[in-house]
Amino acid sequence: MPHINAAAALQISMLLFALPAQYFISQWYGTDSAERIQITKRLIIASWSISTRSYLSLDAWADCLKLWLSKTRTSLYVELLILYFRNWYYGDNKTKSGHNEAKPHSYLAESTHVHSPKPEYIKFRVGQVIIHRRFGYSGVIVGWDVKANTPEEQLQPRYPPVKQDLKDTPHYRILINKANGFGKSTAYVPEDEITVIMGLEVYHPDMETYFSGYDGSKYIMQPWLKKLYPHD
């Protein structure tokens, strides 16, 4: 059994005595019961904060255990055991928390790979303002795919048998102009459903993320976007 020295015993005793002492002290401090209650709560919260850092911390107890056994034959074994436990504890927690994180995908013209070389059959460019032929809304192109890049379960209802050929045509990601009041903020559309328009500015909360300005014919890409579409 490890030997608890006087300093460690004193610290533990002070911790056990702190909360009841704080409570009784607070009862005689303050002008009324409401103030005494608030003081007691603050003392308890402060004591708990110190305790969690000092006595409820895995690292603190591990360091104490290493110190106690530093002069025994089992110190190396204990150190390895502590290292193993730390790796298991923090690694397992990190893995579990990672399961809840959203993983990035490359669907809907959101891929982060460089689109180069650009195929000649890609008619439009990032930064051009477009009008949707059927729905009439305007917007700006922020990305493209050489063909529909969408989860299969979304492709089936979107492209019935008579429109299956559209899946293999270029698709564009659009920030929809808020001035249209269309309801949706983005769209992912095939090439034959849009046409370019000149001299129309687009209003969307994400415009500055993608573009630095407008030159009257198209929007100027931010440097990070230009790296993804160097030929647009």
TrEMBL record:
SMART domains: YccV-like. Residues 121-222 form the Hemimethylated DNA-binding domain. It holds the Pfam family YccV-like. InterPro entries: Clp_protease_adapter_ClpF (IPR053189), Hemimethylated_DNA-bd_dom (IPR011722), Hemimethylated_DNA-bd_sf (IPR036623). Residues 1-18 form the signal peptide. The keyword Signal applies. One of its GO terms (molecular function) is DNA binding. It comes from the Eukaryota. Keywords: Signal. This is FBX21 protein. It comes from Peucedramus taeniatus.
